[in-house]
Inverse folding.
């Protein structure tokens, strides 16, 4: 049996370390297909450079749709495709998947579990990202045909969409950072206080996260306001006897 993970977002070298892909692939026949070179041809420039990352027998960087279709044609019922996005629902790809009886698994994971949102919250989200939702509604009905995958993996019951039915095996799991946090030893920080207190800022990518661009979403905040307020806050801490350490986001290009 073979497992193939497909991603429309660019796969970086540090992703192999973050998700421990090399160790995972030692025990099974596993491949990772990076489709970003034709699904997000222009937007891959927003990601960090891959110049130090050499492809291997696990990662396939598929540069055009024709090549992707050829790869799909070679799959059979002994293969399962894991989809992090909604690639398998594209009518063109889906036709080949059904014809070859390829099994499918849809992932819907995140750093934190989803929560139930009320009508006002949903309406606010729709208005704030109007273009994104209009585009996806059009894509849903014109390009995509949703079907029940063989497996559906999620971190919350609120993540389960309407197309999942009784024939789908639902796998409930925890957030993808849980194991890392539980198993990781308390980090050692080389900090000589010299009478100062320590403040650590973790950049969560509120501004400039490449996923925002990939999904055609608006930034959650104004660039000028965000960095002005962060700067003012750091000045406040510094003036109150704090040493500040900044942990950068692994996917953001700060250059």
């Amino acid at each position: 049996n073979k497992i193939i993970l497909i991603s429309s977002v660019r796969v970086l070298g540090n992703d192999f370390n973050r998700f421990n892909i090399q160790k995972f692939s030692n025990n099974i026949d596993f491949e990772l297909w990076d489709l970003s070179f034709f699904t997000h041809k222009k937007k891959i420039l927003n990601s960090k450079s891959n110049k130090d990352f050499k492809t291997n027998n696990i990662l396939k960087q598929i540069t055009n749709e024709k090549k992707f279709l050829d790869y799909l044609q070679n799959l059979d019922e002994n293969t399962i495709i894991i989809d992090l996005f909604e690639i398998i629902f594209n009518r063109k790809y889906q036709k080949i998947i059904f014809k070859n009886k390829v099994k499918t698994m849809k992932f819907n994971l995140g750093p934190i579990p989803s929560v139930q949102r009320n009508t006002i919250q949903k309406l606010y989200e729709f208005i704030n990202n109007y273009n994104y939702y209009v585009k996806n509604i059009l894509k849903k009905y014109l390009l995509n045909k949703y079907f029940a995958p063989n497996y559906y993996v999620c971190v919350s019951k609120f993540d389960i969409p309407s197309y999942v039915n009784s024939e789908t095996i639902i796998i409930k799991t925890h957030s993808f950072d849980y194991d890392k946090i539980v198993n990781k030893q308390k980090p050692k920080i080389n900090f000589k206080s010299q009478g100062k207190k320590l403040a650590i800022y973790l950049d969560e990518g509120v501004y400039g996260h490449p996923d925002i661009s990939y999904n055609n979403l608006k930034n959650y905040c104004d660039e000028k306001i965000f960095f002005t307020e962060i700067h003012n806050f750091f000045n406040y801490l510094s003036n109150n006897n704090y040493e500040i350490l900044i942990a950068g986001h692994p996917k953001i290009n700060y250059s």
